[in-house]
């Protein structure tokens, strides 16, 4: 149905998102520009892609609930407090005991020689179970959002596939950020297979050029893979190209969008902020191109500042950024 907003998009109007994904602690050496190896002081913030997306959505005026598990220790409690501070519903965040730990990310606020070190040994979030996702009342939400890492290990993988079934049965669109992080997976072959299966079940798919290339078996085949998904199973597919912009397949159209150039302080957080800005804008009923551009603007705001969740703009900050920026590049 060319030109008609698809069903998946009209469903977002409730603006109440269920996010399956992790929450963790981020540490960044301060001041900006400091190498971790030389650090004397660190800034602490909430992190983890699921929590970041949820926090970004709330900042943009939506509601969001997170489904995951954290270690029942001071780092896990920090995450729970932060979710409260950001206004993310944590009813479905379970505390677990044992040797599992909430994940930790130590990353630098600099682009040149950037180092990101992620601690995911015995990650608590991978302990999310089928019973955990079956405890959620899907009918309360407008859509289910997830990102690739939840599929990297069991029992989280089976639990997320079960959540997809339950969400689908409740009529929710499934929104999937491929977000492939090799370090979380047993092998690239397993990752390519599982991520492709998840992609085939999703209504809105967001990924970067490398991720679509990875699922397709070669970087040169990624764009065609994104187009094929949009022609077959998905209603919207966003193929992101970092600082080169994005190509979006929706309603039989290919929409090319640029970026809002900024002085990037770090490469991290672009994808999560893009997702939050994009979905919040779509759920307001904005046209596809406008929503993509607003997601890009949210990403620009985040890469230009230290931190991820703390750097994400609220609606007023996004409007202020758009008002003073000369405009997006054309591609
Ligand atoms: N340096 C930058 N300056 C401005 N905008 C950027 C920059 N990097 C990324 N963006 C914007 O963010 C969007 C998403 O970025 P990208 O394609 O890097 O996603 P990603 O690889 O999923 O990110 P992440 O590494 O956070 O997961 C891009 O389409 C672009 O609009
Ligand atoms: Mg990403």
TrEMBL record:
Mind telling me which Pfam families this protein's record contains?
PfkB
Q: Name one GO molecular function term.
A: kinase activity
Which keywords does the record carry? Kinase, Transferase
Q: List the PROSITE patterns hit by this protein, alphabetically.
A: PFKB_KINASES_2
Gene3D superfamilies according to UniProt = 3.40.1190.20
Carbohydrate kinase PfkB domain ranges (all copies): 18-314
Protein family per UniProt = Belongs to the carbohydrate kinase PfkB family.
Q: Which PANTHER family match?
A: 5-DEHYDRO-2-DEOXYGLUCONOKINASE (PTHR43085:SF49), HEXOKINASE FAMILY MEMBER (PTHR43085)
Q: What is this protein called?
A: Putative 5-dehydro-2-deoxygluconokinase
What species is this protein from? Phaeobacter porticola
């Amino acid at each position: 149905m060319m030109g008609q907003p698809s069903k998946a998009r009209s469903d977002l109007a409730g603006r109440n998102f269920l996010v399956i994904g992790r929450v963790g602690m981020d540490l960044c050496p301060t001041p900006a520009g400091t190498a971790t190896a030389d650090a004397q002081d660190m800034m602490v913030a909430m992190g983890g892609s699921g929590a970041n997306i949820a926090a970004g959505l709330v900042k943009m005026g939506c509601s969001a609930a997170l489904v995951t598990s954290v270690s029942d220790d001071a780092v896990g409690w920090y995450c729970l407090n932060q979710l409260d501070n950001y206004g993310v519903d944590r009813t479905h965040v379970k505390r677990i005991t044992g040797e599992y730990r909430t994940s930790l990310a130590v990353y630098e606020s600099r682009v040149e020689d950037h180092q990101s070190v992620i601690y995911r040994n015995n990650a608590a979030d991978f302990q999310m179970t089928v019973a955990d996702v079956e405890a959620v009342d899907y009918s309360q939400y407008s859509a289910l959002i997830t990102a690739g890492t939840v599929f990297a290990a069991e029992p989280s993988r089976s639990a997320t596939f079960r959540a997809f079934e339950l969400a689908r049965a409740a009529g929710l669109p499934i929104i999937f950020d491929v977000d492939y992080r090799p370090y979380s997976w047993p092998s690239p072959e397993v990752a390519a297979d599982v991520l492709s299966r998840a992609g085939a079940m999703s209504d809105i798919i967001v990924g970067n050029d490398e991720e679509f290339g990875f699922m397709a078996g070669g970087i040169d085949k990624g764009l065609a893979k994104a187009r094929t998904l949009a022609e077959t199973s998905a209603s919207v597919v966003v193929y992101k190209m970092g600082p080169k912009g994005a190509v979006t397949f929706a309603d039989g159209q290919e929409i090319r969008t640029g970026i809002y150039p900024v002085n990037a302080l770090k490469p991290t957080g672009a994808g999560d902020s893009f997702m939050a800005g994009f979905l919040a804008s779509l759920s307001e009923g904005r046209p596809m191109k406008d929503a993509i551009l607003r997601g890009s603007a949210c990403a620009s705001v985040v890469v230009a500042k230290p931190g991820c969740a703390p750097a994400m703009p609220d609606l007023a900050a996004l409007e202020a950024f758009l008002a003073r920026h000369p405009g997006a590049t054309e591609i």
